[in-house]
Amino acid sequence: MQLFDTHCHVHEMVRRTTPVYDKWRADGAERDPDEVLAAARAAGVEYLLCVGTTVSDSELAIEFVKTRENTWASIGIHPHEAQDHLDKATQQKFVALATQPKVAAIGECGLDYFYTHSPKEAQIELLKFQLELAQKHDLPVVFHVREAFDDFWPVFESYKGIRGVLHSFTDSQANLERALGHGLFIGVNGIVTFTRSQAQIDMYRSVPLQNLLLETDAPFLTPTPYRGTICEPKHVLLTAKFVSTLRHESLQDLAAATTANAKRLFIR
């Protein structure tokens, strides 16, 4: 059985490019990234996508995956970081990353109106910028959309041929159906194991298997029963077990399908 963690931030253990570095150390433990990868492989998690959130973080992701087997980088500017990436020099530096080895996707990018750490206008501008880059290089996109689908869909639908995944999807059945209509994948992580929303549970149950991806968002969103601890890629297995039971599918079938989906989207 082979699993694919399609969204993690393991590379941020190496050095501090964002506060995620501090999250990896929040319990006082010093983790070695290669030991974390070894633990993931021991749990059947053979493939990982390391997701960038700023220019410097994306550079770190590229550096991290360069010499590590079965790992790839996604380069992205997170909507929280949009206002700090509006100048042309910074954007050109980001553009140059798209052709680096083992860059498999653009993102995470999108719109986040839950926090609005960056103005909505800046978020929309940076989303368009990254969609244009994805189109130019025919790369899939890792989307982060939170309480912003009313603005997201008109932007997304104005760019033809974009494929990708709605990372950490927790929204409505209506937005799920719209996403599926566009052929998007749905990223499911530890949230499915601890949500108290029956509507979300029903929604996760209804995602077609051919559109489903598994992820951790490590070091965040640790699945039950390890809430309160640091999430690692190995925890994909816990989410997979929960989802397979929820959907009345065998763990082996779920693992095979979601890994094949991820390979089809990210690995060429």
Question: Which keywords apply here?
Answer:
268 residues; alpha/beta; TIM Barrel; 8-stranded parallel beta sheet; 11 helices; 16% strand
Short description:
By secondary structure, the chain is an alpha/beta fold. Helices cover 41% and strands 16% of the residues.
Summed over residues and divided by their number, the pLDDT gives a mean of 97
Number of domains: 1
Order of helices and strands: EHHEHEHEHEHEHEHHEHH
The total beta strand count reads 8
How helix-rich are the residues, as a percent range? 40-55%
Structural class: alpha/beta
What is the first-to-last residue Cα distance? 21 Å
Global Rg: 17 Å
Strand order of the largest sheet: 1-2-3-4-5-6-7-8
Count of individual helical segments? 11
Major sheet attributes: 8 strands, parallel
Name of the CATH homologous superfamily: Metal-dependent hydrolases
Strand % is 15-25%
Shape: globular
CATH topology name = TIM Barrel
**CATH-level-2 architecture:** Alpha-Beta Barrel
By CATH reckoning, the class would read: Alpha Beta
Low-pLDDT runs of 5+ residues are none
